[in-house]
Each structure stands twice: as C-alpha cells, then as structure tokens.
Design goal:
Blueprint (H helix, E strand, L loop, with lengths): L6 H15 L5 H7 L4 H10 L18 H15 L6 H7 L1 H7 L4 H12 L5 E4 L15 E5 L2 E12 L6 E8 L8 E7 L5 E5 L11 E12 L3 E3 L4 H36 L1 E2 L2 E2 L4 H26 L9 H25 L10 H14 L4 H12 L9
Parallel strand pairs: 1-4, 2-4
Antiparallel strand pairs: 2-3, 3-7, 4-5, 5-8, 6-7, 9-10
Helix pairs in contact: 1-4, 4-8, 4-9, 5-6, 6-8, 8-9, 8-10, 8-11, 9-10, 10-11, 10-12
Length: 388
C-alpha cells in the first residue's frame, strides 16, 4: 500500500503545519483557564483553507479524501499540541456534515451543508445520553412526527462543540420503535424553543475544548431538518466512522508530540556527566515509542485510504485504528513522563498536559471494550455477541 503523498498533499501538509504553529504555546493558557477563542480559531482555519476537506465541491467543500483529512488534522494536533485546533476541520468535515450528505432529501443538504462547510455554522453530534453512554441503540431521546414538524425531547451529554456550535445532529428514537431499528437523526438548530445548551463536566485533559449538555423539551423541528428516520442506524454509523478516524489521528499526533518533547528533554538533560539520551534504558524506551507510533500510523493511514468513495471510513478499519490509539497513547505518554524524571511530575513541561489529554483518547468515540465488541461482530459475523 502506497502512502507517498502527492505534491498537492505535501502542500496541504505544509499549510496545516503553518496554521498549527501560529497557535503553538497557547494551549497552556487554554488548559489553565479551560477556555479558548473558538470562533477565532475557526476563522483562522477557514482563512488557511482547511475546512470541508472531504465534502463535495458542489456544497462548498474541497472534494478531497479521508487521507487529506488525516494529513491536515495530524499536523494541526501535533504542532499546536491542542485538541482544539482539530475541531474546525472536524465540524466541517467529520460525522456531522458527513451525515448531512447521507440525508434522504437534497433539500436538507442544500439547507445546511454550505454554511457548515464554510465554518459559518458548526455542526455537533448529539448522540451520548446520561443513562446509556456507549449503548447507542437504547436511546431515550424521542422524535414524534407532528404535521410538517417533528417534536424532539431528550437529553445528551459529552457533546463536543456545545454550546458554541449552531447545529446539533440529534440521534433519537422515531415512531416509538425499540432497539436499533427505531434510531434516526434530525438536525436541531440553536435558538429552537425548548433547546437548552448547558456547560458540561470538568475534564482532566482536553481543557478549553467546548463541550456540554444538550437538553430538548418539546423542540419543534421542521421536517426538512430530518437526515433520516427509523431504520437508518446502520447508514448513519457509516458517517460516525469518521469520528473514530479523527480520534485515531488524535492518538497518532499526540503520541508524536509526546515523543518530540521527550527526545528534546533527553538530549538536553545531563546526569552522571552525560546527556541522559546516551543511557541504554533511555534510548531503548525512545525506540519503543517510535515503533509504537509508526505501527499506529499504518493503521490510521490504512483506515483513511480504504475509505468508501475515499470519504467514508470502513467500520472495521476505523474501529481497529481507534482501538490501537486508545491503548497506545496513554502508555506512551507515561513513558515520556518517566523519562522526564522529577520534572515529569510538575506542571512545567508540556509532557504532563499531553499525558492528561491522552485520557480522552481512551473513551472518545468509544471505549476499548465497546470497540472490541464492534470488531468481534465484524470478524465473526456468523456469531451473535449479545450485550443484553
């Protein structure tokens, strides 16, 4: 499999690198204050031409591939050392707009995609519920058809982009149908009566990234906002695989950042009269970190280049790469902390923040047990691994 970048992709990589470096060092402030200039960052990414990367040109996108997306987001994450820099490409390319592409009606695509892709309106995924977590098919949020509207009620949590984003792709149960067969998705717009956007829990890492809860109390939503109703869960999950690819990129880029910070520390720190990188225990650990990064890189790139229509990552490849990153990153950053010695236990070096940010890699887009369930169901399709 050829992972050599084209001249156009190399230019895209350099553009993303430059855009990320502008914000290098700001993550410490965002981490401390748990706030970031979200709108300003989105504008900067728009000016750099890094939005709507895989969305077709007829909707204002760049018409690129999933690998283009990996190239851009990896550079933004790695150079800025902040999850926040990857959020504008995610909101304009990830599962939100990808789901809108899957809408049953062209009217829905025309209504929402141009503003989403341009970064004028952010689109968040409202899937997780307080009482169900990763149980994506046991949703309590309901959507009831009422003439030319749907009435939507329910609560979502851990919604990245809330309350900043203007559009929420809400997964709900339609027609009272139980299980996966009743799940569909509808777009609820900010300002809709009955919609309340509240701050979320305080995270250990990934601080400064907007996230919160979405409460809906009899929100009347136009029928033209429907992406797809009951019976569309499997189709909608095709777009959701883009989130797993995104989280896989996150693990790759932050592992690279941890490695770079650790190498720099080890080359400049002396002990017993020499640079500590010259001790075998040190450079063996660095070699192991490098190998882990390169192994995960191959899985991440494979998930991108095998995407359906070059745009929708396949379930197996994206889930495998996501699981790889979830298990690799926290261990790798811990090795980085140890090589920092006592300095690794302070707030004075970037490695501690990268280690805290690694916690999100374990659960965002699915925890390891859930990912293993999904992988097993695809490896052994003739078996039924019931979770009931």
């Amino acid at each position: 499999m050829d992972f050599d970048f084209t001249p156009e992709q190399l230019e895209l990589k350099e553009r993303a690198r430059a855009a990320g470096l502008v914000w290098r060092g700001r993550h410490k402030e965002w981490d401390s204050e748990n706030q970031s200039p979200y709108a300003e960052i989105t504008k900067a990414m728009r000016d750099a031409g890094l939005l709507g990367l895989t969305i077709p040109k007829e909707y204002g996108g760049k018409g690129g591939t999933a690998l283009d997306y990996v190239i851009v987001v990896e550079e933004l994450f790695r150079t800025s050392q902040s999850w926040i820099l990857g959020e504008p490409p995610f909101c304009t390319t990830g599962p939100g707009p990808s789901m809108v592409l899957l809408a049953d009606e062209e009217e829905t695509r025309q209504k929402f995609l141009p503003d989403i892709v341009a970064g004028v309106k952010g689109c968040a995924i409202a899937l997780t519920e307080p009482d169900h977590g990763s149980d994506l098919t046991d949703l309590e949020t309901i959507a009831i058809e009422d003439g030319d509207h749907y009435v939507v009620s329910g609560t979502k949590r851990f919604i990245t982009g809330s309350p900043e984003n203007e559009i929420y792709a809400v997964f709900a149960r339609f027609d009272g149908i139980p299980g996966a067969k009743g799940v569909g998705c509808i777009l609820v717009e900010k300002g809709t009566p009955g919609l309340e956007l509240l701050p979320g829990a305080t995270f250990v890492g990934s601080r400064g990234l907007p996230h919160g809860e979405v409460h809906m109390d009899n929100c009347r939503v136009p029928a033209e906002n429907l992406i797809s109703g009951a019976g569309s869960f499997a189709k909608l999950m095709t777009a959701f695989n883009m989130e797993r690819l995104h989280n896989s990129i996150y693990s790759l880029a932050f592992a690279e950042a941890a490695y770079e910070e650790t190498v720099q520390y080890c080359e400049n720190r002396k002990s017993f009269g020499k640079d500590i990188i010259e001790f075998q225990a040190t450079y063996h650990t660095l070699v192991d970190m490098h190998v882990q990064i390169e192994a995960h890189r191959l899985l991440t790139y494979k998930a991108a280049v095998t995407a359906i229509d070059s745009r929708f990552p396949r379930p197996l490849e994206s889930t495998v790469s996501k699981l790889s990153g979830a298990m690799m990153l926290p261990t790798l950053t811990q090795h980085g902390l140890l090589l920092h010695g006592g300095d690794g236990a302070t707030l004075d070096y970037p490695i501690q923040q990268i280690h805290r940010d690694a916690i999100a890699a374990m659960v965002a887009g699915g925890s390891p047990p859930v990912l293993r369930n999904a992988i097993a169901s695809q490896l052994f399709p003739d078996r039924r691994f019931s979770q009931k």
